[in-house]
Amino acid sequence: YNGKPLTAAGKVEGLVNGETVAFKLVGSQIKVGASDNTYKIEWNVTAKRANYRLEAESIGKLTVTESADEVVVTTTGGTFTYDGASHGATVTVGALPEGYTLEAAASSATATNVSDGEVAATADVLVIKNAEGEDVTSKLNVKFVDGAIKVEPAKLTVTTPSASKPYDGQALTAEGKASGFVNGEAATLKTTGSQTEVGSSVNGYELVWDGSAKAANYTVEENLGTLTVSAQSIDPDDAGAFGGVTVGYLTDTVYNGADQRFEPEVVDKDGKALVKGRDYELSFSGDVKNVGEVTVTVIGKGNYAGGVERTYRIAPAPLTVTTGSDSKIYDGSELVNNELSIEGLQGEDRVTAATTGSQTEVGSSENAYRITWGDVDAANYVIDEHLGTLTVTPAPVPPTPTPTPTPTPTPDNGSTPGANPDGSTTPAPASAAAGPLDALAGVLEDAYESVTGGPEADNPVEEERIYDAENPLGRESVEDHCWVHWYMIVGMVLTAVYGLAAALRRKNHEHKLRNDMNDVLGDGDGKDPSGSPAARPAGMEA
Description:
single chain, mainly beta, four-stranded mixed β-sheet, three-stranded mixed β-sheet, 37 strands, elongated
């Protein structure tokens, strides 16, 4: 309602060919109430009434309420700190339209405890009347602005003291107190903080709400102390904190191919063993496998502090190396002996070894050796050598043989046997006589047999042997060959064969040349083709 007529638009549908009528809305509503939105049609324009039939009509309603003005009703609550009292809300109503009066406005919402939560504050009592005295509250445009009532906890302060002492196996405690209860309310405070082991902890507490105070109505502000137990030192030099702990000493050992971590015994003043990992830790400095000094540091842990160092030494292991002995009569070739054994290798250590000693000239020398250590550290062993001796004795001097004269055949021409064309009797070189190449061929043949291991060889070639901890002398069922030596042997054999073939070929060629020369000089019988003794060319004297 605003004192003005209420109207609403309408429309006519169905006119054809652009025809029109006079359409008027006559419905109107001024007072509070409702009526039809009526209309009126006048057929005085282009459309004619007789040409149309009313098919349907839809008549709306015109409604006027008491007032369209908004009435604002505000309920104000609030937030209150718990004090044991009840807290409510207030209601205020904004400006009313002219002719309306406010009869009542209130809220019954209240909150006392924090546990009540947030209580909605609404205007649950509101009465507005019109000029006729009629309650028209529900007919008005009322806007409610609600509030809330909330009670927050009161602050309660709990204080526990700090305390400290050295570790003695007994619990450290200190009592606290609580303050801030309202209206004489009460609860029981229990101090629960306790520290026995070395370290620090909060001096805690527990509130037992066994009195008139309720836990929900209070927020606890803590002022908590710390309980501290200091550690006992294991270092005898720390006079202020040493508690009688004893750290034992360590004994030296010998290299065995494995890690050797020795741990000292650690006991308290009562002789009770401390527990590694809980009471102390161990730190190793140095190589715990190979030869050298190892430092073990005992570091206090948990209830113990400080550090103590203990040392031990890993000494080299004994390694026995033995080589064979041999002897022979001097023959110009090397004397070697490949017998070798190694005893004392530790763990999974593995080395390669071979003898290197040799003796060619008359005399004696040690049968030395060579060790190839590979991944093994030679410093982990002290070698005890048992070396054989290689001895070459002088060869006996053979007696000088008496030459046996060779009979000279009588020539057919009656000339003096063995006579040369010039009358001399010096024998001419025979085609079958042994020369320097024959001696060379013999030497090559001896060398071939020596290298290839023939039955007459004094120096058979042997491979290196590999020694390890499980099999220091090598197993007969397993052969470890050094292929480089095999390649060398094959090369020497091929060289000897080639040299022998070359010598034989040269020898054969020389033989052919002598036969050709004999043919030229007279069929090899000392005569020329005419039958007279053949004259020897210059330079052919024996």
